[in-house]
Amino acid sequence: MVHRISTERVKDLNGIDQIVLRNSQGASAKVSLHGGQVVSWRNDRGEELLFASTKAKGKAPKVIRGGIPICFPQFDSCGSLEQHSFARNKIWTVDESPPSLPAKDSSGKSFVDLLLKSSEEDLKCWPHSFELRLRVCLGADGNLTLISRVRNINAKPFSFSFAYHSYLSVSDISEVRVEGLETMDYLDNLCQKEQFTEQGDALTFEAEIERVYISSPSCVAVLDHERKRTFVLRKEGLPDVVVWNPWEKKSKSKSMADLVNDEYRHMVCVDGAVIEKPVTLKPGEEWTGRLEIIVVPSSFSSEGLGF
Ligand SMILES: O=P(O)(O)OC[C@H]1O[C@@H](O)[C@H](O)[C@@H](O)[C@@H]1O
Asked: How far, in Å, from the CA of 12 to the mean position of ligand 1?
């Protein structure tokens, strides 16, 4: 369903439908039907809050390097499917009559509902019929909320992992710290998924990082000192947090050909996810994963934000 008062439909360079959500303050979010990917999110001053590689622009139908691609039904390469699997490379449809959601996920907000159903092609590599719904909401305050619902319409149970692969735009990765993950256990993908415990009082960046923090708190903050702004991520149904930055060497590798120059310095992926204990749904069951991203000035007190 499209909340028509403050949405418009445009096409990208490849002719793929995009929905632009706007609030009355001038903030906007743009969602592509390709991959159900949020490709842009701007505040009321027109500043882009999500990273997107300059080289990725106009490169669809492959997912663009940036924004918020959805990883479903497999995160990374922890199964038999291609890395991050197929949902992010599919054309989704606008869902005109989605099952209802709580009033807080619609009232006063500009939103669009998208739907992805398993195709014949998907069933060949992942033989489970599903419906994946995504509501993207832009609040009156400019906050972005993503609500995903996965329904098992199969005759047998299935399991999946999921991530909102959120490329946050930052001034310089060396100026960033992530709070809320202190003392948490994480699986380090750079050490064959060995488990460690976070020792520092905040996470800072000086090299490649690729971690899955397991059973993490519902609220995590990403502070950008230079821009004096903080992203606060609030999540429900998403116990894990992925933190990823490829750093210089990997960003210049063949697999990252869409990341140019020093672009890796201006992004950090902090994802609400469910990975370590995949979700299992019986026939007819539904799972919901909700991620809200708020941007506040860094001087803002963290009291009341829930961490
Ligand atoms: O290049 P992709 O497929 O979008 O993936 C980007 C990265 O995503 C991260 O989440 C993974 O941990 C990395 O292994 C991966 O390289």
From this structure: 24
